Amino acid sequence: MDTAMQLPVTIDGALMPDAHQGYGLPIGGVLAVDNAVIPYGVGMDIGCRMALSVFPLPEHELYQRAKELRNIILANTRFGSKFSAFDKKLDDAIFERPEFKEIAVLRGKRQTAVDQIGTSGSGNHFVEFGVVDITDPDNELDVPPGKYLGLLTHSGSRGLGAAVAQHYTKLAMNACPLPPEARHLAWLSLDSQAGQEYWAAMNLAGDYASACHDQIHRRISRALGEKPMAKVENHHNFAWRETLSDGREAIVHRKGATPAGKGVLGVIPGSMTAPGFIVRGRGERDSLQSASHGAGRRMSRGQAMKTLKEGDVRRELKDHGIELMGGGLDEAPMAYKDIHQVMAHQRDLVDVLGSFTPKIVRMDAGGKGGKGGE
Fold this sequence. Notes:
Blueprint: H1 2-5, E1 10-20, E2 27-33, E3 36-37, H2 39-42, E4 49-58, H3 60-64, H4 66-76, H5 99-102, H6 104-107, H7 110-116, E5 126-134, E6 146-155, H8 158-175, E7 188-189, H9 193-224, E8 230-235, E9 238-243, E10 249-255, E11 257-259, E12 265-268, E13 276-281, E14 290-292, H10 301-307, H11 310-319, E15 323-325, H12 339-344, E16 350-362
Parallel strand pairs: 15-16
Antiparallel strand pairs: 1-2, 2-10, 3-7, 4-6, 4-8, 5-6, 5-16, 9-10, 11-14, 12-13, 13-16
Helix pairs in contact: 4-9, 8-9
């Protein structure tokens, strides 16, 4: 983050309480720059996001229908690259977007995007049934305080976003040579053709990620036989054109950071055994109107794979009443920071409207980790 703050295009920056190491900007890094975009300041998984559906079903249905809910998730989700396509695809207007014809890297990945629509990535991406506990009676969701069945998903733009990130990072590194410690922070001017192309491709990848979540929630809602009474969705790994508190226009990169402008709703997840939180941004200028995007890792993936034992993880999950399908040691609850401590550090950044506690969790079965979630 210190390196990013020294770039000649940098205007301002902030580091979130869940921050940990990553390529380019750290995860939890927020950087405002002048008329430029940094592909690795956005990240590999462009537009990675959270989506929460709150169903008009009481908490006890989660336990009474546990086997049915497990089967619904298994039938209506796909993870990773091995099982990354549905036999029967849902139509989506995203594929009519002109960017797929106008930008070469998108043309080359259109069929991959068609195949992977409605699927989830590897790493820390998940689909979960759990308990939504609405605690603030003045919430914008128009949901009375109480406990409900909820569906929470975390995933991004799949192979499409990765291809965009790789292609334009290479262009940025060639156009903007930097010292070795800063090379992943190479930028593209928004006055350049490459910068304009990346901006358009990034926005398409973000919309594609949203379309993936929409299809997951539609499939599962249909199988459940219920329509959500409220939804909350927010993304990270993105860049926005915003006006800063001093009136300057800037490109604000949030890599693993949740937008927290005044009144903006979002979801900040914990881990498999810890609750996530439904939040309302407070528009704090010192954090560049941002908050954490989760608990954040306290162990790298490699460290978790080397030091944690499967038996210990299984006991931890059992003690918390969690049913896990897929997943690996790199995503064990012990690999993450304490979400309650993280939330305590950002009381000035967000107000809490309620929580989501996972109970039935599906993740990629590869178990080898990956960059999902950067």
